Amino acid sequence: MNAFANQIFKSPLRRLPALLTLAAAACAAQAQSSVQLYGIMDAGVQVSDTGAPGQGRQYEVGTGNQAGTRLGFRGTEDLGGGLKAVFNLEMGIFNDTGALITFGEPSNIVFGRRSVVGLQSAFGDIMLGRDYTPAWWNIFQTDRFRLGMPGTIATSSQVAVTRANNGIFYTSPVLGGGFRGRLAYTLGAESSSPRDLGRLAGAQAEYRSGGLLLTAAAQTRTDLVPGSTTNTARLKERGAGLEYAVGNYTVSAGYWATDPVTATVGAVDRSRAAWLGGTVRLGVGQITAQVTRTTMDVFGRGTGRAITAGIAYVHSLSKRTSLYAGIGTVRNDANSRLPLNTGTQRVGGTVFDADPRALVVGMRHDF
């Protein structure tokens, strides 16, 4: 070390090779391994009404209206030969209070959005941990609102499982002709009894060509039979969709069916949803509208139907910052109580034949 330091501090001509060697080593180390901090901050004012008798408007500062507020860390290490080690940790945040969003997990969960480590190669990516399910990819890619703003299909599609724990997740490379596939298998409760509780298996396939995307997915999860602590049955869901973009116009359409395991009066026993949406770009802004029809077999009541509709305008101030405004509603019949999803929050959903609605105005910043 002393000899190397002495060489650096000698005459300019003699120290140049040592400085170049040191710089090259630093650049190589930087190229081999990197860690990135990233996130989204999204907040706005929301005016909502559940539509239930005796309840009026509610005013609040909301979060994650256009996109879920998040903070994440991702890293890559080049192992050579086209092989890379990767990881991703991502947490959801209510930035109006600073509290964590756990997505249905226990309150002590920090990285509820994603928590994976794995390998990338020419043969695809394989990840271990908590990740998105095949159903999530299918829904996200065909939702014109990308799971944000009033009118998103996040709730109206009735998709049941969008993230899964204790899983093995595989994504293929893009194959000839634009095909890509995803597989997911989780180990469920692992050490608990019954051990297959929560076990998920699913697959998603997509095809891209120019502005066209076609996608389909199916998955099952093992749940407890109502009233039992040992017997299990399978929740099943499946669907397909498309997106087509040409010039300043994009249209999306899709279908999703979910068959949960339930025997609770008033709960949805089976659902089918179909949606159609479109986006028009206008300079630095865009207008998006979408409508979804959801049909539900409600246990103990019969068939219920709901129409969800929303429209929004997003105005880009820069590549990272945008302003938005959106409005949406759900029209429920006598056997339906579908809530309105406004991004991170839900409005209504507790009273049959009530029509929730909401208006959101806010700002999103990516970093």
From TrEMBL:
PANTHER family: MAJOR OUTER MEMBRANE PROTEIN P.IA, PROTEIN YDDL-RELATED
UniProt protein name: Porin
Main localization category: membrane
Membrane topology category: Multi-pass membrane protein
SUPFAM superfamilies named in the record: Porins
CDD domains hit by this protein: gram_neg_porins
Range of residues in the leader sequence: 1-31
InterPro entries: Gram-neg_bact_OMP, Gram_neg_porin_domain, Porin_dom_sf, Porin_Neis
Occurrences of domain Porin (ranges): 18-334
Pfam families with a match to the protein in the record: Porin_4
Locations listed in the record: Cell outer membrane
Subunit composition and interactions: Homotrimer.
Alphabetical UniProt keywords: Cell outer membrane, Ion transport, Membrane, Porin, Signal, Transmembrane, Transmembrane beta strand, Transport
